[in-house]
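Components:
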Amino acid sequence: EDQVTQSPEALRLQEGESSSLNCSYTVSGLRGLFWYRQDPGKGPEFLFTLYSAGEEKEKERLKATLTKKESFLHITAPKPEDSATYLCATRGYGGSQGNLIFGKGTKLSVKP
Amino acid sequence: KAGVTQTPRYLIKTRGQQVTLSCSPISGHRSVSWYQQTPGQGLQFLFEYFSETQRNKGNFPGRFSGRQFSNSRSEMNVSTLELGDSALYLCASSSQGVGESPLHFGNGTRLTVT
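Structure:
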């Protein structure tokens, strides 16, 4: 069964304190791994798509990386405005029939 | 460019009733997909419509259905509501489809079933 597990569930950082969020996945034939950011009361906002192991993408203070079993979202010198829930999702060729499978998210709080 | 619009923002219904939610995608996007978000299960895929045809369906009972119109606007219907259907329902549009191009989400409809 295709699965996506995110850790930690919640993360509190001080402004400027870099860290990483983890997304572990089990999927038959990865067709893409996606990162989204969700602010309270809003729908998720697209951040990155990764397709193959070794691929990296960057946007401002965020950098996403992908291996064959997991993806990391690295946050460098975070600011309070980076506080949000970060969701990862995968899409595979197998049992999920190409549907998106989301993890439950990591809630990030950055204190000034 | 206007974003994805979902109406209504909030709904309160009684068990056994039915409900229809509406989603207007970004202009030019032919794919609309629907998701249920709850604290316990997280975000779960319901179904995707592309050019008026259902392309994919998640693991939800037949009480959940949808359709897409020729202008790409989409509706989702839930019949015989149960307490467990209380959730935030999100729709997303994309130009190429789920997983093929970035999803643009609306801010959701919060459904409460009493």
